[in-house]
């Protein structure tokens, strides 16, 4: 059976490995070629016993299934993450599954566009014309302190709380997802990976391997290098190389991506040229979220009155 038209425009490979220190691999990876390009995902699960393994597999399964049965668009990518979040959250309500969650970074290629959905501290990188760029921002305690100027990159890399995640699929009833988009160019190479790779190998090493080897060989080499450097965590890698960009009809969604530079996508609003905006699906505010500040103010006033009255 011939490959879909979009698949002939790219070369891709995914690989996951438990590493040298973990007995269970709680990471999961997935890829599917489609007529418009493909879907590629890396997920890093968390939770006791087998819950992390289940969470990452649920994320990969639901995101792949949704995006291969729905016309590609930023909204479809967001819906896929929301569907995965719901499945993991529901599974985590069982007593034996408390604490279940997973990171997820997914690349949706709707050629000539690339759309990236991101939750957690797995990462997406772009190698373009000799420049290696991290497209996503980590949702972690140390990364937030680095952005605030309270920690240096070196301090964050060695901090005892470097594995504390501030956002994960399945932690809350609704997902908080970063959404990034760009127009691809021939020769672009995308790397998705869990922190079992990015936390061990320097960017210069990642770039060198991507420049030297095709995707299938590069995935094996990166896993090998991470294990040679100790393999302290599960290691997951997805690499996609754009061979050429086919001529396509105009897309049904309008995005300011023609410059080819990565931008944050905010559905229904103008995009920004930085990948920091958290994207949330529109939904009614709960009573607590809507009136939270008023409740706090009323409680403060009541406490103050109580103290004053009891001083007489």
UniProtKB/TrEMBL annotation:
TM segment ranges: 291-309
GO MF, any single term: protein serine/threonine phosphatase activity
InterPro entries reported for this sequence: PP2C (IPR015655), PPM-type-like_dom_sf (IPR036457), PPM-type_phosphatase-like_dom (IPR001932)
Keyword annotations: Membrane, Transmembrane, Transmembrane helix
SUPFAM superfamilies per record: PP2C-like
Start and end residues of each PPM-type phosphatase domain: 11-242
Pfam families: PP2C_2
Residues of the signal peptide: none
The protein's name in its UniProt record: Protein serine/threonine phosphatase
Organism, as annotated: Marinithermus hydrothermalis (strain DSM 14884 / JCM 11576 / T1)
Native organism taxonomy: Bacteria, Thermotogati, Deinococcota, Deinococci, Thermales
């Amino acid at each position: 059976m011939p490959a879909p038209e979009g698949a002939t425009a790219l070369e891709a490979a995914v690989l996951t490995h438990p590493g040298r220190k973990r007995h269970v691999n709680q990471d999961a990876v997935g890829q599917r070629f489609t007529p418009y390009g493909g879907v590629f995902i890396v997920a890093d699960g968390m939770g006791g016993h087998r819950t992390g393994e289940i969470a990452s597999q649920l994320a990969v399964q639901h995101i792949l299934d949704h995006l291969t049965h729905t016309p590609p668009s930023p909204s479809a990518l967001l819906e896929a993450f929301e569907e995965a979040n719901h499945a993991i959250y529901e599974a985590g309500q069982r007593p034996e599954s408390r604490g279940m969650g997973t990171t997820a970074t997914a690349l949706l290629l709707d050629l000539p566009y690339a759309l990236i959905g991101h939750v957690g501290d797995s990462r997406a990188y772009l190698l373009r014309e000799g420049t290696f760029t991290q497209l996503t921002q980590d949702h972690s305690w140390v990364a937030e302190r680095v952005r605030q100027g309270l920690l240096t990159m070196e301090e964050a890399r060695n901090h005892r709380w470097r594995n504390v995640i501030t956002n994960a699929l399945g932690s809350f009833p609704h997902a908080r997802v970063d959404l990034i988009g760009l127009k691809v160019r021939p020769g672009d190479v995308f790397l998705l990976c869990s922190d079992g790779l990015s936390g061990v190998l320097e960017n210069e090493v990642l770039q060198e391997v991507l420049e030297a080897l095709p995707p299938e060989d590069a995935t094996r080499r990166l896993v090998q290098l991470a294990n040679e450097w100790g393999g302290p965590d599960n290691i997951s890698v997805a690499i996609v190389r754009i061979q050429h960009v086919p001529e396509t009809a105009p897309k049904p969604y309008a995005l300011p991506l023609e410059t080819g530079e990565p931008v944050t996508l905010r559905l229904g609003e103008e995009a920004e040229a930085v990948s920091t905006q958290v994207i949330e699906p529109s939904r009614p505010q709960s009573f607590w979220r809507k009136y939270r500040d008023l409740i706090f103010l009323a409680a403060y006033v009541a406490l103050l009155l109580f103290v004053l009255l009891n001083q007489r």
